[in-house]
Amino acid sequence: MTTILAIESSCDDTSAAVLRDRRVLSNVIASQKVHEQYGGVVPELASRAHQQNIIPVVDAAIRQAGIGKEEIDAVGFTRGPGLLGSLLVGVSFAKSFATALDKPLIEVNHLQAHVLSHFIDKPDSPDTPEFPFICLLVSGGHTQILLLRDYFDIEVLGTTIDDAAGEAIDKAAKIMDLGYPGGPVIDRLAKEGDANAYRFATPHIEGYNYSFSGIKTSFLYFLRDRLKEDPDFIEKHKADLCASIQNTIVSFLLKKVERAALDRRVRQVAIAGGVSANSRLRSELQRICAKHGWRAFIPPFSFCTDNAAMVAIAAHFKYQRGEFADISLPPYTRGS
Question: What per-residue confidence (pLDDT) applies to 128?
Answer without folding.
Answer: 93
